[in-house]
Amino acid sequence: MKRKLTILWFRRDLRFEDNPLLKDLAGQFVLPLFVFDPFFFQWEETSHGRIQFLYQCLESLAGEFASRNSSMKFLYGNTAQVFDQLLASLSKDYTITIRYNYDVQIDYGLKRDKAIDAVADTYGISVQKTRQNFWVAKGVEAKVWRDSYHDYMSKRLHKDDWSEVSRSTLPKLPNEIELVDIQAIHPSFFNLRPKMFAGGRQVGIARLNNFLEQDSKGYHWKMSRPYLASLGATSHLSPHLTFGVFSTREIYQKTLERIEYIAQNGSDYHKHVFSLRSFLERLRWRNNFTIKLEHTPHLADTNRFSEFDEVYNMNPLDDQKQELYERWKTGTTGFALIDASMRQLKKNGWMNFRMRAMNASFLTIICGISWQYGAVHFMNFLIDGDIAIDSWQWQMQAGITNPFSKTFRIYNPSRNIIERDPDLAYIKLFVPELSSVSLEDILEHEKAEEGLFGNRIGDYPSPMLNWNQSKNLNGSKVAKVRERVRKRLQGLNVNQ
Prior knowledge:
This protein is an alpha/beta fold. It has 3 domains: 1-132, 3-Layer(aba) Sandwich (Rossmann fold), CATH 3.40.50.620; 202-295, no CATH class; 300-490, DNA Cyclobutane Dipyrimidine Photolyase, subunit A, domain 3 (Orthogonal Bundle). It is built from 21 helices and 5 strands. The chain has a 5-stranded parallel beta sheet with strand order 3-2-1-4-5, covered by helices on one side. Helix 4 (107-122) links the parallel strand 4 and strand 5 (126-130). It is globular.
């Protein structure tokens, strides 16, 4: 008689805590695994830093399995083919169930999951799908959404049943799919380890505790200051959330516990609690974007409104725009805050949210380059790269979303220096050419279309365009398309 075996397929849910994947396993034989698909290393939006962080998270999770006298398997190859080989081998001795969490995906991931389901069906194997994040149906009204969200986030965390899992020795996996060392297969992804983030549960716990206890003070305003954000004024938990080292629900509940503690013991109760509640709003914001992408996965690379296809598309860039794009990517635009944040992106694999919004606005509205180009570049470097947030925010900053508003935001990089980095601490950290330059000199420099700055700035480049002229030219194009979308949608509402 065949024994029962549950295969736990981990993806971006690399934790024991609050993981529905690990519920109701008592008495079962269990095989936990992760598949390194070659697509990870070929896809144009793969960040080396993100792969490194992922590997550290997997090392940490494997250590947790080892501490429980269990073993996690790392496999390499096309995921559907790996499962085909795996099931062909194990189904001889086991009645198998495959279990995995739903994961918001781009087109490749959606097709991959369907392929796994099809392979399982070929062998008559059951597939159980669990959900690790809050979810509501499309079109739910705002109040119901919020009530459902807070109800879900307040529920007791999932507890694993690992202490009661059967640990009988499993048959050896086929040699051709067993992974020994991913670093030996793709060493280029591990040559440089970013200093800003390290992965794994213990690192994440230390960061969460430090943030809740101390660094969260002033979060509500510090998060928009790029220098302070770089030092830890923001949570720096986004990479850990991206790979599921934490669930948003666990962080939500720990934050509420901290708020309760401060209420009983804190002298600056109102200020600190206000910051922590602002942080909770960012968690809700993150969940919202995850749900948006699951409902509308095509928006990962498609304009929300088709009228924008004439303005934003992946047609090849002409020579002039290609030069603008390259200077934007390398942080040599001649606009100090743009250059500092783009250089931080390349060095650290991160920048704070306001700098991301400003750079998106600059590339799309000012340079007239399609948001898809910028979104790909961000995902090439962001360690916390999350396609759900990245693509929607790029469309928002490009002026595509919310067409019923007759205005849309365009960030002025010079004004943002005055408001967000007036002492130039951030700029001088990432643009050493400007280490001895004053705020007044930088502001004058950015007004000059042809770089009328003389030798005071050394080798720092002249502004690559006239910001005001470009804003008026490209901004008017976007405004006209928004008006067309607005009229069409208003007409649909009238006809309905």
